[in-house]
């Protein structure tokens, strides 16, 4: 997620080229006694190297009354008993420490014997899985894991490495299931019967240029035809402010009829976005502003509840009483303006470029247009922001998407320090 750094300068301690996407967005009784394949239409060969698995009362009864006839007993010292107890406690502590120290190595040993975590069987509910042109075996393994088709990256990728000859994957949509074994998932992906014809999956937050590529991959429509159709803006009924289809290609799964034209395929997505806006209660006159704001939220937010908080941060920054400059300072908008639709990281020079109309570090208010195609959740968050006085946010854990929202610059700087510490422990995120 992008960062909304403190106004007017970047937070101290942040490098010149930083993932601002992360900034926003975006732990003995008694006496004294002496654990740690390129894809597309070609075989996955050579396959990249294997990814490591991330990742493991002592007591008794009171004596009866002694009679006067019993001989007097010598009083025994309790020092020996306390000493034994202390030694016992020390031994228990040492055992616990040893167990904790060996927990990691033992877990690794068990994992090496049992193999990577994997589901069994052919899965549960049906899901549509997309293979995109140019993806590698690692890309497919990660996407399968992200969609919970397979249980772990290694379960699928290790199997893929052992296959001979190397599997050939074709770009397009496939009918799979959630929670499949790696073997079942691989068999399904190489079975032509599971390839869905004329089917396209458009994820939330995908930029228009990439949506057209997805439509081409899932259908028989040439990308050039789709690009030409998308340029005919007047035929789609877009708001007067629109200079492209950006923001109005609703993210969903589509199955087109055989022989569909490029124009009709694109119009299907536009009409679906209008339906989503109507269902959300957005008047036609408000479509433009709603889609622009929702597109930022879609790119910046991670966890579902945070969509509404991110919406509030942007709206608070648009309020001159709370944020005098009116600068949203979103790196996602800057990156979009540079043509890097797949990134949310920027450089000092890019953030200073006033020629970029999407540069919200220089130009106050909302950007000149949408920066992605938002879904229902982002649209709802744009219309119903959470209550709060937040002006900053930083996604400090990029694995879980956990985000810290702050009202003051000091609070935000502390959150940034937490994010930086997490990044040092996870160098794979760069």
From TrEMBL:
It is found in: Cell membrane. The keyword Aminoacyl-tRNA synthetase does not apply. The chain crosses the membrane at residues 81-102. The record marks 300 as: Important for catalytic activity. Keywords: Cell membrane, Cell wall biogenesis/degradation, Lyase, Membrane, Transmembrane, Transmembrane helix. One of its GO terms (molecular function) is lytic endotransglycosylase activity. Its EC number is 4.2.2.29. Residues 1-75 are annotated as: Disordered. Residues 1-14 have a biased composition (Pro residues). One of its GO terms (cellular component) is plasma membrane. InterPro entries: MLTG-like. It is a single-pass membrane protein. It comes from the Bacteria. It is an enzyme of class 4 (lyase). Residues 35-48 have a biased composition (Low complexity). It catalyses: a peptidoglycan chain = a peptidoglycan chain with N-acetyl-1,6-anhydromuramyl-[peptide] at the reducing end + a peptidoglycan chain with N-acetylglucosamine at the non-reducing end. Belongs to the transglycosylase MltG family. This is Endolytic murein transglycosylase. It comes from Cryobacterium mannosilyticum. The gene is mltG.
């Amino acid at each position: 997620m992008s960062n909304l750094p403190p106004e007017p300068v970047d937070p101290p301690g942040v490098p010149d080229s930083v993932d601002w996407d992360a900034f926003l967005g975006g732990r003995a009784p008694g006496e004294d006694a002496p654990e740690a394949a390129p894809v597309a239409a070609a075989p996955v060969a050579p396959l990249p190297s294997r990814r490591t698995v991330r990742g493991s009362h002592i007591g008794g009864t009171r004596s009866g009354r002694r009679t006067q006839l019993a001989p007097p007993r010598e009083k025994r010292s309790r020092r020996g008993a306390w000493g034994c107890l202390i030694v016992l406690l020390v031994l228990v502590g040492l055992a616990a420490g040893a167990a904790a120290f060996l927990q990691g190595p033992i877990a690794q040993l068990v994992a090496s014997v049992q193999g990577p975590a994997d589901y069994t069987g052919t899965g549960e509910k049906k899901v549509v899985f997309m293979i995109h042109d140019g993806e590698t075996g690692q890309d497919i393994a990660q996407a399968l894991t992200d969609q919970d088709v397979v249980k772990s990256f290694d379960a699928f990728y290790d199997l893929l490495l052992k296959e001979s000859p190397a599997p050939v994957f074709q770009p397009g949509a496939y009918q799979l299931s959630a929670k499949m074994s790696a073997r079942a998932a691989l068999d399904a992906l190489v079975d032509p019967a599971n390839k869905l014809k004329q089917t396209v999956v458009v994820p939330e937050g995908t930029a228009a240029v990439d949506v057209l590529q997805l439509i081409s991959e899932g259908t028989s429509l040439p990308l050039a035809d789709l690009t030409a159709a998308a340029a005919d803006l007047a035929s789609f009924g877009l708001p007067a402010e629109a200079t492209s289809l950006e923001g109005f290609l609703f993210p969903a799964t589509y199955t087109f009829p055989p022989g569909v034209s490029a124009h009709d395929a694109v119009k299907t997505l536009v009409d679906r976005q209008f339906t989503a806006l109507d269902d959300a209660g957005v008047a036609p006159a408000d479509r433009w502003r709603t889609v622009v704001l929702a597109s930022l939220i879609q790119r910046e937010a991670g966890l579902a509840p945070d969509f509404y908080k991110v919406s509030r941060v942007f709206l608070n920054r648009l309020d001159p009483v709370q944020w005098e400059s009116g600068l949203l300072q979103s790196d996602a908008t800057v990156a979009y303006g540079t043509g890097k639709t797949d990134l949310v990281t920027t450089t000092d020079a890019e953030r200073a470029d006033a020629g970029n109309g999407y540069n919200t570090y220089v130009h106050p208010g909302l950007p000149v247009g949408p920066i992605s195609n938002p879904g229902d959740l982002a649209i709802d968050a744009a219309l119903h922001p959470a209550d709060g006085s937040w002006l900053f946010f930083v996604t400090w854990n990029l694995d879980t998407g956990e985000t810290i929202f702050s009202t003051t610059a000091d609070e935000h700087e502390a959150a940034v320090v937490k994010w930086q510490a997490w990044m040092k422990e996870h160098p794979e995120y760069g």
